[in-house]
């Protein structure tokens, strides 16, 4: 059995959750010894398509014509397309119909959570829909003093400074404006947002915030990965993720794997796999500030319980779940 892992627009998506997800898929197949290719011109038995552009569309058509098996990865929904790029709310119904068409062509849809499964099922998709986490490589997020020192040096962080971080694109959906509003309540705490979006693709309000209309304690350093980012995950004081809509949230898994205290918006995607013993949830900025203050004061510490969630979604477990999915499809 040989799998085609397909990602269209790799250079564009390598800073996104989908870009990270396909790296996890490659790592998973390496772990369990299933042969794969990323070249659609190679021979393969199952096409596992992760993207939705024109090349993905025509590949899907080719796969169906050849009678090969097709898995579509349900990373995206019309719900998480809203409140992102310029014009996204207007286009969301059209995007929803297009995604529905693509997912209906599949022999199996893989999607990260029960929540995203429920959304896709609600579109009228009748093929099997299997929730499999994007997974997390726990080894990358082990506490490492050298990585934490790189993080502190990069941002000139003093020993007595408190730091709250987030990671994501510059979207309202990600809660970027709420991140800034909460930061205003903590003028002596540094708030750092990791991530980047082309300023020409995001609404004026988000562009204005990133370009300088924010408190002095908020920083937008752009897209940073590797040692500095991993050092930030383990070496900061809080991971604050006020997103309004996700299909899973890979950065949340990264924070949990880092044994970090996590503050999240209380939204449906987290209901069935994260509870109040593992993370701190809030419904508004006042509750977010209250949870963050409790962590900074040492009154809240959910690191160990949160880490257990990351362990349950480790890449080796996900690898076996993917292998089972491929076997299920090949036998259809």
From TrEMBL:
One Pfam family recorded for the sequence: Glyco_transf_4
GO molecular function, one term: glycosyltransferase activity
UniProt KW NAD keyword: no
Glycosyl transferase family domain mapped to chain residues: 148-302
Key words of the record: Transferase
Domain Glycosyltransferase subfamily 4-like N-terminal, first and last residues per copy: 43-139
Protein name: Glycosyl transferase family 1
Organism per entry: Floricoccus penangensis
């Amino acid at each position: 059995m040989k799998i085609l892992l397909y990602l269209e627009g790799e250079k564009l998506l390598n800073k996104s959750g989908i870009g990270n997800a396909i790296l996890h898929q490659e790592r998973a197949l390496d772990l369990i010894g299933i042969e794969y290719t990323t070249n659609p011109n190679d021979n393969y038995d199952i096409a596992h398509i992760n993207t939705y552009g024109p090349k993905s569309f025509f590949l899907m058509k080719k796969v169906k014509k050849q009678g090969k098996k097709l898995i579509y990865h349900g990373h995206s929904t019309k719900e998480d397309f809203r409140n992102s790029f310029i014009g996204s709310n207007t286009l969301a119904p059209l995007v929803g119909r297009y995604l529905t068409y693509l997912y209906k062509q599949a022999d199996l849809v893989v999607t990260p959570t029960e929540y995203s499964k429920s959304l896709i099922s609600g579109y009228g998709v009748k093929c099997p829909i299997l929730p499999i986490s994007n997974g997390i490589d726990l080894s990358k997020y082990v506490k490492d003093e050298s990585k934490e020192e790189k993080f502190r040096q990069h941002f000139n962080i003093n020993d007595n400074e408190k730091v709250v971080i987030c990671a994501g694109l510059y979207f309202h959906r990600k809660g970027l404006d709420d991140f800034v509003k909460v930061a205003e309540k903590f003028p002596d705490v540094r708030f750092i947002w990791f991530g980047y979006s082309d300023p020409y693709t995001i609404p004026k309000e988000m562009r204005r915030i990133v370009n300088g209309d924010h408190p002095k304690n908020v920083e937008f350093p752009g897209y940073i990965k590797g040692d500095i980012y991993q050092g930030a995950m383990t070496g900061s004081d809080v991971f604050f993720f006020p997103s309004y809509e996700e299909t899973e949230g890979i950065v949340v898994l990264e924070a949990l794997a880092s044994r970090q205290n996590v503050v999240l918006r209380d939204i449906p995607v987290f209901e069935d796999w994260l509870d109040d013993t593992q993370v701190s949830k809030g419904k508004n900025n006042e509750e977010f500030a209250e949870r963050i203050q409790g962590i900074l004061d040492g009154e809240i510490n959910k690191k160990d319980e949160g880490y257990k969630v990351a362990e349950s979604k480790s890449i080796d477990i996900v690898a076996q779940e993917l292998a089972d999915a491929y076997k299920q499809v090949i036998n259809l």
